[in-house]
Amino acid sequence: MDSKLLELLVCPVTKGSLIYDREYQELVSRSARLAYPVRDGIPVLLEDEARTLTDDELEHWAAAA
């Protein structure tokens, strides 16, 4: 994921920042508790395509910030 692109992208639900999870190929929105998939290098920023973060995942990303 290009860092310049990541700076421009925001969560479509909260308009908050996103964190790139390289291992799972997802963009994480802590404020919305959602993870958006990145498919073939293309972020899919649709709420219907996102998965809900578990409490453990949310704690992980809160600690990483």
TrEMBL record:
Belongs to the UPF0434 family. In the C-terminal section; belongs to the UPF0434 family. This is UPF0434 protein SAMN02982919_00743. SUPFAM superfamilies: Trm112p-like (SSF158997). HAMAP family: UPF0434. The lineage of its organism: Bacteria, Pseudomonadati, Pseudomonadota, Betaproteobacteria, Burkholderiales. Pfam families: Trm112p. One of its GO terms (cellular component) is cytosol. It comes from the Bacteria.
